[in-house]
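Look over this record before class:
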Amino acid sequence: MELFRSFNISASALTAEKVRVDTVASNLANMQTTRTAAGGPYRRKTVVFSERLDQVRQVPPKFRGQGVRVSAVVDDPNPPRQEYDPEHPDANEAGFVSYPNIELAKEMTDLITASRSYEANTTVINTAKSLYLKTLEIGRG
């Protein structure tokens, strides 16, 4: 039903932002992980969003947007951070340890951005709900 389209679009954004928050949390939890099952240090993950399109109905292209979706969670291609620590068990022959390419400031920025987007979409849902309730009140009067 088109009446609830704004709810669906905002709900899809809330779901996508939850994935981004979970990914940031995983990155922060693994900032010091120097050895993974795949070998080498943990790789920073990033979330890629894409538009969710309505391809079922015959809708003009400018009205096909149905929200957002997570199209992929990918590894950051930047190389690991090298720190000199010859006593570390994962140090190479030169005494350098490969740490994940995770920067606390970048992760916190992503977390704040996701939080603000989450708040904005919650506001959209609450505003739409309020408008629908006011519309029902007009119909009763």
In short: DSSP finds two helices and four strands in the chain. Residues 2-140 form one domain. Residues 104-140 form the longest helix (37 residues). The longest strand covers residues 65-75.
